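Class, carefully examine what follows:
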Amino acid sequence: MEKRVLVLNLDHSPVAVVSAQKAIVLTLLEKATMLSTYELLQIRTISRSFEYPAVIRLNQYKSIPYRGVMLNRANLFRRDNGECQYCGSVKHLTIDHVVPRSKGGKTSWTNLVTACNRCNVNKGNKTPEEAGMPLKILPFKPTLSYFLADYAERHAEEWLPFLNVKVVPG
């Protein structure tokens, strides 16, 4: 698997994840500076050898409109570590409104959790307090940095010093 490269803006905020080839082109064109490399990895051409970039920083600030993390099933399951937030099961997962829609609950990051089918049915049209089913972790709106840090913990530890977030344990 090819390692990915974290791209930071001039202010060190994460803006993208790119291929190593793209990162090297940006550094050779002096549009970016390499901040961290993957040790023991190199990219070789016929005549040259390059350090394998892990993190690069753009040399000019780019104004990139913040779009946030899209609220969808995959990202919600990712935020909740793919487990029911009531019992911890990883099978037959669904989405649950913490405050049911019938009681004014919104479809938002802070009102949705991953739930197994059994817990979702048992909770029914009640709040967790009414159903006697406490949540493992309160729902929150994740940032791009949160998801990048989660990825970095599994695939790119070199990114962690550049991501100013604390990953919520699973």
